[in-house]
Design a protein that fits this description.
Structural class: mainly alpha
Helix content: 55-70%
Radius of gyration: 19 Å
CATH superfamily: DsbB-like
CATH class: Mainly Alpha
Strand order of the largest sheet: 1-2
Order of helices and strands: HHHHEEH
Number of strands: 2
CATH architecture: Up-down Bundle
Number of domains: 1
């Protein structure tokens, strides 16, 4: 049985671990993030903030609300990461600024505009994978796992009359 602050503490630890891993891959491993990778970090950043407030705050009644917010943030991130995985597998069209295109530019100005408008790293190319799962795939799995954890803790709080 987890104490009141243990659940948000676990969310905080998981969120810091995911963001820390992403930053290590970026700054130590040399893997520059694409546009979607950067967007996928925001729910984790927000979860860090909300979970930190729940762990350090004195309001026990706020913890279920924090778990609900973190769960929804990471559920949305699961969907965003799924979209990113789909872009990598070419199931979905990705953002035009960070995906490949087959059409050649018809002028030097069009070529220049394309180069200046394109991200350095493409969203539709996997830079690194473990067991055949890209970083976006691992993010999807981590987001789903923590979102489910938050949902289960919220359900328990409602059942016990805390929320």
């Amino acid at each position: 049985m987890l104490s009141d602050r243990a659940a948000p503490l676990l969310v905080l630890i998981a969120s810091v671990a995911v963001v820390g891993g992403a930053l290590l891959f970026q700054y130590v491993g040399g893997l520059a993030p694409c546009e979607l990778c950067l967007a996928e970090r925001w729910p984790w950043y927000l979860s860090i903030g909300f979970a930190f407030l729940a762990v350090t705050g004195n309001e026990r009644a706020a913890i279920p609300g924090v778990m609900a917010v973190c769960g929804l943030l990471l559920l949305a991130n699961t969907a965003l990461a799924f979209y990113h995985v789909g872009v990598e597998f070419h199931w979905f069209a990705g953002p035009t600024a960070c995906t490949g295109t087959d059409a050649a530019p018809d002028s030097l100005e069009a070529f220049r505009a394309r180069l200046l408008g394109r991200q350095q790293v493409r969203c539709d190319e996997v830079q690194w994978a473990l067991f055949g799962v890209s970083l976006a795939g691992w993010n999807m799995l981590a987001s789903a796992a923590v979102a489910i954890f938050c949902g289960l803790k919220l359900k328990r709080a409602v059942r016990e009359g805390i929320a």
